[in-house]
Amino acid sequence: MGAFVISKRYNDEYKFVFTSRKGKVVFTSLSYELKFECEEDIEKFKTTIETADFLKFKSSGGKFYFKLMLKGNHFATSRKYTTSLRLQKGIDEIVRYGSNSEVLDFSGNDFIFSD
């Protein structure tokens, strides 16, 4: 099963990624100013995943990616895939596991190991 992982960007805004069962990033969200907005959008996505649209693209470098759309609004962008088959497998994983994936919060600056 995949997981939603919340973290901070370098500009102190929040984002989340959806990771596959193997730990690879499938897509990355847009930026959020506040963490609770990020958490709310994850829950909204989990409950409305069946209405999500996946717009598929091919980059100028020949890689495949998708933009995840919710109710006509851009929600997230996928990582780059080498083939369209792998792209489709990424989408299938989201549809299959997204609604019951856990949420992990790594947005705090608490380091496990000290210097």
UniProtKB/TrEMBL annotation:
<dbReference type="InterPro" id="IPR036913">
    <property type="entry name" value="YegP-like_sf"/>
</dbReference>
<protein>
    <submittedName>
        <fullName>DUF1508 domain-containing protein</fullName>
    </submittedName>
</protein>
